[in-house]
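Hi there. Long-time user, first ticket. I'm pasting a complex I've been working with (about 398 residues overall). I'd like to know whether the download I got is complete or cut off, because the file seemed smaller than I expected. Thanks.
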Amino acid sequence: MSQKSGEMSEQTVWMLAVRDDRNKSAFAALFDYFAPRLKGMLMRGGLQASLAEEVVQDTMLAVWRKAHLFDPHRAQVSGWVYQIARNRQIDVLRKERRPIPEEMRGDDVQEDDSLQIVALEQDTARLRKALQCLSPEQRTLVEQAYLGDMSHSELHAQTGLPLGTIKSRIRLGLERLRRELGNEQSL
Amino acid sequence: MSSIRHHIPESLLASYASGELSYAFSMVVAAHVSMCAECRARLVTHETVGGVLLDEEHHSTVTSGLRSRVLDMLDTPQPVRPAPRRMGVFPGPVAEALSYGEPKWRRLGAGVRQTVLKRSDEESVRLLYIPAGQAVPDHGHNGLELTLVLQGAFSDETGTFGVGDVEVADDELEHTPVAAEGDACICLAATDAQLKFNAFVPRLLQPVLGI
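Hi, the file is complete. Here it is re-exported in full:
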């Protein structure tokens, strides 16, 4: 876990130590950070405590086993973990396999570029700030949508999440992420 | 891939990221994202929003045994769901739904064929095979219909759709898609309500054919 720190968040440092060195104490740190938050999200989504813990377990084991797929140039650790947990949550709740996209081709893993990684983290910090500027009502809606129960039939696909009104704020600062992803896939 | 002009609407991507979207629409989103760097980036943006909110989620203490159990399991090999892989014209999530076998096409007449991937009262998702130059019967639908082109192209009253393009048709649109000349058109089509065909006979056949 040595030279990789720089200004990276500790979650990123832990995740890279898990990915590159299979470092178990870094994994334990990730567990201690994410497990209570994941359990909070899953229980908010209606899972009983014991089932929520099963999903936490599956998610954290997937973090360990899929670590080689984590690319800090195009994803934040928390977003990456979020997506793994959400997939698992849906599989459990709906008892069917949620369709998921192919992994990006990118077996030729690029060298970690800490400047770029930190830049993405700064974009995310701006996003965090934008989310903090929401009114309490908007914040509640967004939290319900992203962390809550996934079976809100009144949130019809066509009207979508209550995101419409705040979309421009959410878009703040993530252009770099888009460029990054666009460049890589068009190689 | 950069020739894709018709993308997944933002609201659907957000609904997919948050887990709200039905199986049928999720299939179309996952298939399109597999083919489209731009929508993949937009999807990751929504996942980043989810991650930021997760960072700030209130803590719910986990039972003491969970941590040691998980740490003990790190060295135990366990099957991981493999990432879906592309098979010919079929993007990974579609190939996975086909169990990596060829689609079992069923004839609908006039050379049009379909393979149902999933059908329930609320939703359906299927593959359509339309010979070059052939029209699909004029139809409207009760809800939203998403059509993703996997091979060839089709045109209707709203425009032309090539490989990777998604048409989003709501119940206002009554359209007659016609496959372009050249390769047969293969599409992935998802609806959130049973299609209602305008032409009399196809409507009679709807329950029989399951379209």
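A couple of notes from our side: Chain A has one domain: 10-100+112-185. The CA atoms of residues 5 and 13 of chain A lie 6 Å apart.
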